[in-house]
Input
Amino acid sequence: MPAPQAVVLGCSAGGLAALETVLAQLDPALPQALIVCCHTGSSDVGLFCELLALHSALPVAEAAERHPARGGVVHVAPSGYHLLLETDHRFSLSIDPKVCYSRPAIDVLFASAAAAYRERLVGVLMTGANHDGASGLAEIRRRGGIAVVQDPQDAEAPSMPQAALDLAGADHCLPLQQIGPLLNRLCLP
Amino acid sequence: MDSTDTELEDIEVELLVRALQRRHGYDFGQYSPASLKRRIQQLAHTQGDGTISRLIERVLHEPGFLQVVLEGLSVPVSEMFRDPPVFRALREQVLPVLASYPQINIWQAGCAHGQEVYSLAILLEEEGLYERTQIYATDFNESALRQAQEGIYPAKEAQLWSRNYLEAGGRHTLADYYSARYELIKLDQRLRRNVIFANHNLVADEVFCEAQLVVCRNVLIYFSDALQDRTLALFRHSLVRGGFLCLGTRESLDFAPSAKDFTPVDAGLRIYRLGGRSAVRG
Output
């Protein structure tokens, strides 16, 4: 099975701490693009990126419209826009209506990434208080990608990972502390 | 849905785009595929019994269905004074320059439901420039244009918009410009007195006015590189030398050759001026 080309991560309530944990445990040699959608509620993710960068093993940057998703970089969805992947692995933005009361929405990122990377994608869904990401994760599995869900019992807000398990199921369901090491195993040859 | 089904869906999207073009002359072939596909999927849910093939059939055979599709495929989401720092910069940096023109023409391209048109009109009113300004507000979506002219919006938006207005340097309160009734607000129709609403499709139509300012925010994000570049060239030809262009705050010009003709006034806020630095000076 060919190695994944990208990892998409979605989270909401409690997401900053969860991402800090996962990104801190990543191998700095990961060649994949990592793409994050987190409902922050703020109007600018600049500060959010700075906070993540303090912990992350890989550089963190806001995803830039039309620019390609780059390997070894954590790209963060900008506030107020949906973030999508085109089939040439470049970023698109949209101001289409909110999905699950959210823009950016995890479902939008995951579904477009699933179409762009097909089976060479890992989707990670973590703590959150609504059901965003469940249908996107199902789409990733339909296209042959790998679904990773944080164990709801371990999540600060369990409803999002639980909704994903109920709708999409998962290839891996595990506590936060084990997600980073799992990604290293899945992504490094 | 297995992988064959998802490939089938890709084929259906292509065929629908082709049907719209051949049957009705609307070309969505140059739209960014990811968002277009998402919108088509949603239309299939609401209008096509779940399948895109049914949409194609209706597009080909049902009179009047085109309008439904166009509404579904266009971008009607905005808010008044979205990104307040942009409107503050327009107020403080752009309008003082426009004030030197005896007649000011502004083209709002892709005006959708008109929230930004009214925002601009309020800015101009408060800066004492509105009497000599003509705003051309265009969109390819007739129904959005009609709603823009009515200026009626859900009252639940008013709180956010009022906050935006003040952050953008508003001199009064936004409530001075609308009346509220039940669940709706209606913008003061005097704000419309110097606005011409017109149907214009950035994909197919040409230059139609000479403007000192073009505002086109979060429209080009839906276009391919080639169509984005073509549209920027259209704006360049529509602008007077030294004229201003205002785009959405997350739009990238890094893949558009035509962008070389524009110099940033405030790169972060995506406000540009036509002409090199030497042309802009003075």
Q: What stands out?
A: The first strand of chain A starts at residue 6 and ends at 11.
